[in-house]
Amino acid sequence: MATPAVRLASRPLSRDGRRRRGRLTRRAVVGSVLASVTVLLLGLSTPAHAGGPYVWAPAGSIGKRLTICAQDLGVRHSKGGTPFAHLTSGQTFTVEHVDLEFGSEWVYGFAWGNVNARGYVQNGWFCNS
User: Fold this and answer.
1) Integer CA distances (angstroms), 107 to 33, 41, 50, in order
2) Distance between CA 127 and CA 89 in Å, rounded?
3) Is the Cα dihedral 37, 83, 60, 93 positive or negative?
């Protein structure tokens, strides 16, 4: 919700240059509602796309076999798609490509363990070793 200072600034000026008292204009109300919805949506979508609290695989990790620290990490056919399999803590993933276009959020490679297939995993869920 908009603060009082924002509401005051969004009120139209009267002919003598002072702020009018009274209700907000329709444009100001719609603008503040859209701003609130945008902040809400960004707040809800950020954690879903943010990587984990562990090590991120940089572009220099191509060809390395990294250990998964997440309890459950989805392996996907496409970035952000539905997981077709899951890696668990202790299983490994060989990095073949780090997607720098999307801030290194997705890593493509070969998922070992119970998956044994190529796919995308969310970056940020690898152990230090």
Assistant:
1) 37, 25, 13
2) 9
3) positive
* 69: Cβ contacts below 8 Å, ≥ 6 apart: 52, 54, 55, 89, 125, 126, 127
pLDDT digits (tens, 9 = 90+) for 100-113: 765 568 999 999 99
- Each residue of 19-55: b (16+ CB within 10 Å) or e? eeeeebeeebeeebeeeeeeeeeeeeeeeeeebeebb
Q: What would you measure as the largest C-alpha separation in the chain, in angstroms?
A: 74
pLDDT, tens digit (0-9, with 9 covering 90-100), for 57-70: 887 889 999 999 99
> Strands (DSSP E) along the chain, which ranges?
65-67, 72-76, 83-88, 92-98, 106-111, 117-122
Q: The tokens of 48 are what?
A: 């879903």
Q: Which residue type is seen at 62?
A: I
Q: Which two tokens stand for residue 50?
A: 């943010």
